[in-house]
Amino acid sequence: MAAADQEPHVSAVRPRSYQDESYLHGFLGTVGDLQKDGAFQDVVLEVEGRRFPCHRLVLSAASPYFRAMFTSDMAESRQKTVVLQGLDAGMFEEILSYIYSGTLHVSLAKVQPLYQAADLLQLDYVRDTCSSYMAMNVECSTCVDQYKFADVFSVDIVRNRCLQLINRHFVEVSSREEFCSLNVNQLTEIISQDELEVKEETTVWESVVRWVQHNREDRLHHLPSILPHIRVNLLTSDDTAAILDHPVVREDPGSSEVIRTVVQEGNPNLKPRLGMTTEMVLMFCNDNSKDLLFMNPREGKYISSSYKSEDLPYARAMTVTSDNNIYILTNERDDDDDDERESVEELSVFKYNHAGNVWEHAGMSSVFKWRRPENNLKYHDHLIEVDGILYYLDVDLEYGEILMKKYNQHTGKWEECSLLHLDYASYGFSETLSCGSNIYFLTNTELYRYDPSQDQWCKRTPPGNIPELSTAVTIGTDIFCSDRYVSLPRVYNTETDCWQELPSWMSPINFDLHEYEVPLFFVLENQLHILITCASHYQEGYVYLANVYDRSADTWRELKATLPNTKYYPHGSHWPVARIYLPYLRAPECT
């Protein structure tokens, strides 16, 4: 075949696209120089009498607001001078500086009007930057004003941050003059918060009185709509009588009638405020006991609550959720097969009713698991919550398999998640921990992270082969764990995937670690604590030593603990902690 008749060679190399970063930055710089030099400007924007010569093309590229203005049939598209209403001239100058340079200058003094200008001109970057800046700089002295601004413009990130600060410092914030400038809807939202840090409900009532009396004539008629948000069920009869007898109530017969109706009907769904509750460690007294000890050694509170045998189910696993719900995973039926075939086990979930101090079926469907009857001692059950979703883990350490399911509230059913296969068989410690929006599974030699958004497990850096690893708990973005002698405690940073050693615990003179009991972590007031079961040289039975880890001093400090002399049975590798409204327990304090 002649050369002319041959088919042209087709290259196998694919075409590529290249992006010139220096051109992109240089282009923006050139546009800025043109603006400074006044070159090619084809429109003048007038704001509060000030004139700003600009380029239609640049404005249209930067803002959907200007794009619509200059590319539509609007009169402004043909005008040489366009007057803009509802803008501050100084803020518009800042906006133009950003449009032509890409640099935004933000300060507390101008962040709100700058946000308003960006909102009007539909500049998402400026609006989002201002939102983040405001959220990072919310202060107690300004949180009410910032909350009002965020409420008007629906800036959720700022609004939520302000509510957090108002909740935490409600007594101080509600006494300020700015608090009385809230409208009725804003006031109602604030006093409806479960997270208010108040010791008594009368504090909330007194804040409402101050708000009404600030403008009595215009606000008194709002009282009937506000009063249902006062948690009358948490008031004493004397407090309720005092409210009914208050001048602002007696002056409006409707208010008096509303509060009487609220008192008579009651509302058990109105929870105690956060400030009325106390963080308490939950400890089961013995394996088969129906007594539960609620304790807080920092405040010297030890309250025992007894339940009927049928009212407190045997706990296979226990968890306290982020919204302070306490769940127990328990057996409903256990089918043992004599021929040692795999059998199915049905587990149900019970929930603690704080107001009634009783355990009730959570109303969830049962979760089914497959287990090997001959392997009872080598599998564990775990119940955990992440971002409002409950997860159940069926852990078989001998076979190295972890089956996980999550509860779908919409369908009322448990759904399977990705299966995890361990690299090594293990016969000892394993724990499941929630940290941020992820789940971590920890053994003596391995660490895995589960991402619910991707339904995927991935390996992380293991803690090292710590012998007899026995306890683990999370605080913030950290996971703390320790061996049974507290000689090798460590902390894992989930963000950096790094481990760090902690100081070991030193046994006091005349005390020895109990031979058959392991120390367990718990978290109070965002601090790491450990409860250690000891044997005394001078007395029989159990002696409990509570210690807190002082992170700034990097040392363990002893706390006085006066637990009743009995055995406590854990359900997991740490003692769970919940916020408890102590009057609900209705039990005498132990001495």
Show the helix and strand layout.
Layout: H1 21-37, E1 43-47, E2 50-54, H2 56-62, H3 64-71, E3 81-83, H4 89-101, H5 111-121, H6 124-136, H7 143-153, H8 156-168, H9 170-174, H10 184-191, H11 202-214, H12 216-219, H13 223-226, H14 237-244, H15 247-250, H16 253-265, E4 278-285, E5 291-296, E6 301-306, E7 317-320, E8 326-334, E9 343-353, E10 358-361, E11 367-371, E12 379-386, E13 389-396, E14 401-408, E15 413-416, E16 420-421, E17 430-435, E18 438-443, E19 447-451, E20 456-460, E21 469-475, E22 478-483, E23 490-493, E24 498-501, E25 511-513, E26 520-524, E27 527-536, E28 543-550, E29 555-559, E30 568-569, E31 577-580
Parallel strand pairs: 1-3
Antiparallel strand pairs: 1-2, 4-5, 4-30, 4-31, 5-6, 7-8, 8-9, 9-10, 9-11, 12-13, 13-14, 14-15, 14-16, 17-18, 18-19, 19-20, 21-22, 22-23, 23-24, 25-27, 26-27, 27-28, 28-29
